[in-house]
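Lab meeting, item 3. Inverse folding demo.
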């Protein structure tokens, strides 16, 4: 309560400031109403010029810009912004959350700050909760912006990258939080600047900000793909392992859980594989498969460490003996066991990119949001996003009658009373909106209403356009609507019917569209709207006479916001309305505050099951329980953010480095530092202990020889008098730099007179960055999985995660340097004009030596994954799959690298995101459009996120989806037009 008072301390001052802005807009309104359409549109160019010249800031332009938008909305939509809407728009522009009650016109409010901030030319993102609302708002509110000369885009699932890039290039872009977030992650998986679609994060307006930034923030956005381990090697080594004899061909240390192959074992393996040297660089990955197969044979026992059920290997917890469903051994160990047991070898998913919604939205230079219910979460908004919550007054006084809660002993008695109440209200013509906490409860209530003969509609969170129609009709006489979640529906419940929705439907039936036929649409709009208003006028009066909309809640939600969202649907714009919640002692929330005590009181008083109790004590106890649950959920979200903060700092470093490469930065000096640092690491490691005569310089020189062509000889043991590590390091570093200069001269220059080495540096560094970062994400995933156990040793898991994560990041950065240097010195380059069949004309082929007998790899268009690193530990890691072919660059680059080229993944990428419409958990969607629910989440939209392929070859897009040809028109009006298809057939 104290914090709440502190957060609201400056509320009056802010409201006075916003009211003063609204008065300024009113004072100059007449100056804009007298302008012609052309003159009003010309104001946009004038505003842009004033901003570009630096004469005025956006804050200075605010009154004039808002007045222009208000007049444009009046001419296009037939709606004039209320003063409170001007206040809400100003609050958004100033970087706040505007809390505006349901029915106050938040969607129209967003046009004000969107227009003003678009004048700077850096783009504005308007974030909605589903694809239907994004499309609808881009069409309807876009009419205002297009009238004023701005461009408006919308992001759809499965939109191809070139079209997606064009949408982001618009002044204002609509889309969902998941689409914006996944595009950010895909941009940071891109191989060239041509593939980037987003152009920065300037300003965002988040609709239903509490749903997106609070409810969905517990689930991070994750792009994952199958780890690229060829399963045939697991099978091959599962065949070889039984042929090897323990203590002869290999040794086992069960205490340390390690295995070591002997000389005789190596000979047998080489004989079985038909290779000459197992430890040759090209065969290094095979050592990891061999070690895993021997561990599976000796260290992992069936029915002790794991069991096999229905063709699946399941891990057994060594402490509890319980089967750990859904868990798998890491580093390819689980696949080795599956090969040993001769069951299907399943590929694991590896995280390729991830970010929490909190950290994504904190990328924006300025963030704002709007919702009807934000004050209860004001502390979290301030703490996580540095956003203030400004409650905007309603345009008309609220006269809704909120009845006290009634509590029944059993759920059956409660629902019987609910059905009775609904039937009575329906009979007298009063519209009823019923809120439930789950789909199951909605279905149960629907069956009871059907038995009672009450006609009704059920919102099922699957077809957004259909839902909008249901909501638009929910205020009609006698309508009964059952909904699971009323947040983010995006359509007003207006008594007697929604005239704007009716007018839009009529114009659509006439084939008019604000996008495709804007002039005809605008010409017909006012007449259609007036006709719709007349059609609902009589019914509106009848509904008001019946008492207005009645909101009935069948249970309290965990969050007060959800209850307020439901209740807020009644009493919009000064309408009559009523609300009441029906509870039972069996409700989930009731059990949180000791419902047994209440039940005992009811039993002692001998209160029948069908007789409710009304008590302010119960209501206060419920509110207290909700506050406690909200606090628990806040802690969960803070915990997610704390762990992601560690990753976020690392992610920022890597993504900034990637962007430098993609932007064509000269990496020459940086790579020279890589050379010096790598050589220093080798030399310091070899000279750390003992006297110079004891240093093993032969081993050091062998290691350096694998790194670069060494041009100096190792000092003999007799010549080491006075030799120091610094002197040795200075000689070797100078030699390495000379070798690098020779390498650059040997490669020569390209067609643009730039040394070929510059492009090679960019390609190699980008490929190494990607590979090492994905390996690092994989290792961090497993670190976080088990870090909670550190608490048993009286150590803070978060501190341990930060410490070990930092150490792992440092190791990764050193690995990036070493592997980049090794590749830059050792890849083979073919100059243009000396092409082979494997290399296309006018390109430079760069390829490491291929293993004997290996098939030639196809020419690449972009690097994505490196050859396996030449050490056992890296060989056991998973190589990340490529990004889908849809994101491949359009043309072959001037330099391509065999071994760094993209490899086709054996399965589609997966996109994990928060479930929509209040679902119970995250949803994982395949890039092919198939979807699978994880954690019981609700189904996502019909199509997966962008970047995935269409659902099968030749799959026809939805009629209202953008045409794949890139025209920007809907499929039904482009290649899906029957007339056009028939003409093409003829």
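The presenter then showed the designed sequence:
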């Amino acid at each position: 309560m104290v914090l709440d008072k502190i957060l609201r301390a400056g509320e009056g001052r802010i409201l006075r400031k916003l009211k003063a802005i609204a008065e300024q807009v009113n004072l100059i309104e007449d100056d804009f109403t007298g302008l012609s359409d052309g003159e009003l549109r010309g104001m946009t160019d004038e505003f842009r010029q004033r901003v570009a010249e630096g004469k005025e800031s956006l804050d200075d332009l605010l009154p004039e810009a808002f007045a222009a938008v208000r007049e444009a909305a009046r001419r296009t939509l037939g709606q004039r912004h209320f003063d409170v809407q001007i206040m809400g728009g100003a609050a958004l522009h100033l970087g706040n959350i505007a809390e505006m009650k349901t029915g106050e016109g938040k969607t129209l409010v967003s046009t004000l700050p969107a227009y003003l901030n678009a004048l700077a030319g850096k783009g504005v993102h308007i974030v909605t909760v589903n694809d239907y609302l994004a499309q609808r708002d881009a069409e309807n509110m876009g009419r205002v912006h297009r009238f004023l000369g701005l461009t408006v885009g919308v992001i759809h699932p499965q939109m191809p990258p070139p079209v997606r890039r064009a949408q982001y290039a618009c002044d204002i872009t609509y889309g969902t939080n998941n689409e914006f977030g996944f595009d950010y992650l895909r941009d940071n998986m891109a191989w060239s600047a041509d593939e980037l679609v987003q152009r920065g994060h300037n300003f965002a307006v988040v609709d239903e900000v509490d749903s997106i930034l609070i409810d969905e923030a517990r689930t991070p956005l994750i792009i994952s793909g199958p780890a690229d381990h060829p399963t045939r090697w697991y099978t091959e080594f599962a065949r070889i392992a039984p042929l090897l004899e323990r203590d002869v061909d290999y040794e086992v240390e069960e205490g340390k859980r390690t295995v070591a192959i002997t000389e005789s074992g190596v000979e047998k393996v080489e004989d079985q594989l038909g290779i000459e040297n197992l430890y040759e660089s090209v065969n290094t990955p095979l050592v990891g498969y061999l070690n895993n197969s021997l561990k599976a044979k000796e260290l992992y026992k069936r029915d002790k460490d794991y069991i096999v059920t229905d063709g699946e290997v399941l891990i057994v917890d060594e402490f509890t003996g319980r089967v750990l469903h859904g868990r798998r051994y890491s580093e390819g160990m689980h696949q080795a066991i599956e090969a040993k047991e001769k069951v299907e070898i399943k590929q694991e998913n590896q995280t390729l990119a991830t970010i929490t919604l909190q950290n994504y939205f904190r990328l924006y230079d300025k963030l704002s949001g709007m919702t009807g219910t934000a004050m209860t979460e004001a502390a979290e908004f301030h703490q996580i996003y540095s956003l203030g919550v400004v409650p905007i007054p309603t345009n008309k006084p609220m006269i809704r009658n909120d009845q006290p809660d009634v509590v029944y002993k059993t759920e059956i008695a409660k629902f019987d009373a609910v059905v009775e109440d609904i039937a009575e209200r329906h009979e007298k013509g009063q519209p009823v909106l019923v809120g439930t906490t789950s789909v199951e409860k909605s279905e149960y209530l629907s069956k009871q209403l059907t038995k009672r003969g009450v006609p009704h509609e059920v919102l099922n969170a699957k077809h957004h356009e259909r839902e909008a129609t249901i909501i638009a009709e929910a205020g009609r006489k006698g309508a009964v609507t059952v909904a699971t979640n009323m947040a983010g529906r995006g359509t007003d419940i207006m008594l007697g019917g929604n005239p704007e929705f009716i007018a839009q439907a009529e114009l659509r039936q006439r084939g008019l569209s604000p996008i495709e036929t804007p002039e005809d649409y605008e010409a017909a709009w006012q007449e259609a709207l007036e006709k719709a208003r007349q059609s609902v006028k009589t019914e509106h009066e009848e509904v008001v006479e019946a008492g207005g909309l009645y909101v009935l809640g069948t249970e309290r939600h965990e969050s007060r916001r959800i209850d307020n969202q439901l209740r807020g649907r009644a009493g919009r714009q000064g309408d009559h309305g009523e609300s009441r919640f029906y509870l039972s002692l069996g409700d989930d929330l009731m059990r949180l505050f000791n419902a047994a005590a209440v039940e005992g009181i009811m039993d002692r008083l001998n209160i029948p099951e069908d007789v409710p109790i009304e008590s302010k004590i119960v209501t206060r106890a419920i509110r207290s329980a909700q506050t406690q649950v909200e606090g628990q959920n806040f802690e969960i979200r803070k915990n997610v953010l704390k762990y992601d903060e560690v990753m976020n700092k690392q992610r920022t470093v890597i993504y900034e480095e990637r962007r430098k490469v993609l932007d064509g930065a000269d990496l020459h000096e940086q790579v020279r530092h890589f050379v010096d640092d790598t050589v220093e690491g080798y030399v310091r490691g070899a000279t750390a202990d003992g006297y110079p005569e004891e240093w093993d310089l032969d081993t050091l020189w062998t290691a350096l020889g694998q790194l670069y062509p060494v041009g100096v000889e190792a000092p003999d043991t007799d010549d080491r008098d006075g030799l120091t590590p610094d002197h040795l390091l200075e000689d070797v570093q100078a030699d390495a730099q000379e070798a690098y200069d020779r390498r650059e001269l040997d490669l020569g220059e390209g067609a643009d007179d730039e040394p070929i080495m510059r492009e090679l540096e960019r390609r190699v560094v980008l490929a190494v960055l990607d590979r090492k970062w994905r390996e690092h994400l994989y290792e961090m995933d497993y670190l976080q999985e088990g870090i909670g156990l550190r608490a048993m040793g009286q150590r803070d898991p978060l501190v341990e995660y930060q410490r070990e994560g930092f150490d792992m990041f440092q190791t990764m950065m050193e690995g990036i340097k070493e592997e980049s240097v090794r590749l830059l010195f050792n890849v083979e380059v073919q100059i243009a004009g000396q092409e082979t069949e494997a290399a296309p004309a006018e390109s430079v082929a760069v390829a490491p030596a291929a293993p004997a007998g290996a098939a030639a790899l196809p020419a690449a268009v972009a690097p994505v994954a490196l050859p396996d690193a030449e050490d056992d530990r890296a060989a056991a890691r998973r190589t990340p799959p490529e990004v889908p072919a849809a994101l491949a660059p359009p043309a072959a680059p001037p330099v391509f690298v065999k071994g760094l080229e993209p490899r086709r993944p054996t399965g589609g990428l997966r996109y994990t995101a928060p479930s929509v419409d209040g679902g119970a958990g995250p949803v994982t969607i395949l890039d092919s459009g198939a979807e699978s629910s994880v954690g019981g989440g609700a189904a996502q939209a019909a199509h997966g996120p962008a970047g995935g392929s269409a659902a099968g070859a030749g799959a026809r897009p939805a009629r209202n989806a953008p045409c794949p040809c890139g025209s920007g028109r809907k499929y039904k009006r482009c290649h899906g037009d029957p007339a056009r298809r028939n003409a093409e057939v003829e």
